[in-house]
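Encode chain A's predicted structure.
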Amino acid sequence: MISVYCSEKLDGICAAAIIFRHARFAKLPAHFAGFLHPDLLSRELQDISTEKNKLLFLLDISLSPEHLPLLDHISKHNKIVYANTTNPNSVKPNAKIFDQHERQSSAEQAKNRFLPNDPVSAQLATLSHEYKFWKINDDKTLRLADLIASGHNPLDIITSLSRGVLWNDTFQKTYDEFTIKKNAALEELMKTIIIKTHLTYRIGYCLASPILTPTDACEKILNSHAGVDIACALHRDGKITFRRREHPAIDLRELAELFGGGGQPFAAGARLPYQITKDNLPDTLFKIEHALRAYFLQGDPELQNT
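Encoded structure for chain A:
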């Protein structure tokens, strides 16, 4: 039995759909085993370690050295057939096949590996690449990302995409209901904006509703405030996400690593060990700002004496 795990993002979902499509063509049984999250990965791998005799696919997941003992334990009773990531700093798991490419989405990697000439897989790879690297040319990309964020049954989405059906009436109904809530949340988001300056960078902080994805929240900040170079969305579950415009040269992975996270140069995130509320927002911002100030001071000798 093929057990597919993936990130809770459009790229992970598209990669999973490609694997489901490959499994169907190969007449292999497959099931969706669950989502994996960067900030909860150790706990989730611990849960997977109880599985036995499974063929595991780990899609769109970045791994750290601390995860290797768990992965080795998992490999004793299962076989990690395939894993992929867009993070060049991810460690290599004990997998039969491992793809790692900073400029290809995970769905692109899965397509190239298993179904290189399949038109449906190519379409899914294109959608995931657009969203992953903020080069969106198709409204279907944004609608699918919103559908995933709405909490719609992931197996329903993966199965539909794997059959080449990118949209249907059920998806549309969920999307319409979610859009109303999302638009209201985006309006509330900008009422919480706080702007701080480090060197020549202006960082815009906002407290995001749980229904907003990190991408939606940060994109709203950047699109609504021309003076902001870096958007930082603070989520109530403790997650913090950074996005930047194209022109700043700063590597956002380094900012996220200050808080135990990681990501891409243009987009990164971490999770604080507590919930973020309106009441503790000032203290949370103080802690984040303190860490960022120390980081920026290291790179500017003139400021180290201020």
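The domain at 2-167 is CATH 3.40.50 (Rossmann fold).
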